[in-house]
Amino acid sequence: MTLSMLTAGILLLHLLGVFAAMHAVMYTRTPQGAIGWALGLVLLPYVTLLPYLYLGSSRFLGYRTGRRRRPAPLSSASTDGHAAIDPGCARFAAVSALQGQPFRGGHRLRLLIDGDAAFDAMLAAMAAAESCLLVQFFIIHDDGLGRRLQQVLLQRADAGVRVCVLYDGVGSHDLPQHYVDALRAGGVTIHPFSTHRWRNRFQLNFRNHRKIVVVDGTCAFVGGLNVGDEYLGLKPPLAPWRDTQLELRGPVVAELQRHFAEDWRWITGNLPPLLPPLPGHGDASALVVASGPADELETGSLFFTAAINAARERVWLSTPYFVPDHSVRAALQLAVLRGVDVRVLIPARPDHRTVFLASTLHAYHAVRTGIRMFRYQPGFLHQKALLIDHDSAAIGSMNLDSRSFRLNFEVSALVVDAAFAGEVETMLTTDFSHAHAIDEREYLDAPYLRRVAMHVARLFDPLL
Q1: Is 70 within the bounds of a domain?
Q2: Is residue 69 part of a domain?
Q3: Annotated catalytic residue 384
Q4: Same-domain check for residues 327 and 277
Q5: Residue 389 falls in the annotated catalytic set
Q6: Where is pLDDT greater, at 273 or 73?
Q7: pLDDT at 155 over 70
Q8: Which of 146-160, 262-276, 411-425 is predicted with the least confidence, judged by mean pLDDT?
Q9: Distance CA 178, CA 195 (A)
Q10: 321 and 268, same structural domain?
Q11: H helix or E strand, kind and range, residue 169
């Protein structure tokens, strides 16, 4: 009896594996991924069925059902009629069409370098909120910085400000319930972002990696910083922590408000308080670039590809995880062939060893094609910055890996403004001065087993 039940169980697993393999063949994004999943599910369903349940889907279903991307108008004047846009925006027409939004002019910007400057500015802006405060982070810790944020949120809620907070349920997995309960008791509306509905319920792979703060609909922040003492450089061995945030004032604040609202509505079924956009009083033109697994197109990868292809003088990139897909890798290589100065800054210290191994192999291949690769030495580099030519730069949450390209909800701001690009250039020049150039010897001189480990790590590129 026991033997027959065991046999029946094995047959059932193999039958489920066959059905799952059929699903993988139909819906997995790449032929390589489809082959890998199909073979594993048919031959070893005992090992692969559960991972496929959690990792196998390539789309986050239901989030933006029926939404279509439409080309956005692009002219010398913004559509709100308040401020002219920089003519340099025209070469990013593909990015504008990808977002279904035009560039808008009239922005005032502030580049915030590292955690102390960024959180001093963000917490001060939050503390001055008068009507509405929208806050979203991938990670919130219950530590010194997390409690500073908690106190500001409670004070604003006590003053009658409507405070809405989103954090990622996996990224903030160790956030204690008492932290959340204290905020709710104080009048703050706070929720974890989760897959939430039955079609996505097991898809832990889809995460909300966005960092958005919007104050009274007039001031917003995006960048790479989460809420935790490590982001202030207070936790060795990764300290000092290198990161960047961007403060924006102008029309695109309304776009950041809208992207927060889409996430909020997915979780709560309701909209947060939304304030009308204000006219801009600055000189910079900007476009919010939001991406995620609910998009019809692979927005993250297409954004980097289009931006790199637009470059004629230089492409300087700073990313903690260098695991480019074929499109982005080809765009970087083509830029080198056009004579563009292509430089990529990555960490010298790992925070995720598998990603670090894969990044090292990708760096080796990049160097061989003429891409200049550098390792930042003082501490861990978590900054996500992109500089194009002399007039364009992007700051946000997007890493250069498949997770940011396809699996995470991300947001960045693409700015066309020579003065702002000059600030980013100065920042990155300082960063490169604290970095060592990578050459082929980094890979070739590594022990054989470490090189094998790099190639094994690369097999997991679609999940990194």
Answers
A1: no
A2: no
A3: yes
A4: no
A5: yes
A6: 273
A7: yes
A8: 262-276
A9: 23
A10: no
A11: none
The one catalytic residue in 211, 295, 391, 431 is: 211
Length reported for the chain? 464
* Identified catalytic residue from 209, 243, 283, 431: 209
75 or 347, greater pLDDT: 347
Q: Of 263, 362, 382, 391, which residue is the catalytic one?
A: 382
Distance in angstroms (rounded) separating the CA atoms of residues 210 and 221: 11
Whole-number Cα distances in Å, 201 to 51, 56, 61, 195, 219: 14, 12, 10, 5, 34
Catalytic member of 168, 283, 389, 391? 389
Query: Active-site residue 191, yes or no?
Result: no
**Residues 6 or more apart in contact with residue 142 via CB below 8 angstroms:** 175, 176, 179
Q: Is residue 75 part of a domain?
A: no
Whether 181 sits among the annotated catalytic residues: the reply is no
Residues 140, 272 share a domain: yes
Rounded mean pLDDT, 238-260: 96
Note the pLDDT tens digit of each residue in 292-303.
988 888 999 999
* Residue 99, in any domain of the structure: no
Catalytic residue among 86, 168, 216, 243: 216
Quote the number of domains for the chain: 3
pLDDT tens, position by position, 19-74: 677 776 776 666 656 776 677 777 777 667 776 666 666 666 666 643 444 444 44
Instruction: Quote the domain boundaries for residue 196.
Output: 104-283
Rounded to an integer, what distance in angstroms lies between the CA atom of residue 15 and that of residue 360? 40
Q: Are residues 27 and 111 in the same domain?
A: no
Q: What is the mean pLDDT of the chain?
A: 88
Report pLDDT for 263: 92
Residue 312 tokens read as 């004629």
Tell me, yes or no, if 382 is annotated catalytic. Answer: yes
Tokens of 33: 């991924």
Percentage of the chain exceeding pLDDT 70: 84
Active-site residue (options: 384, 391, 417, 431): 384
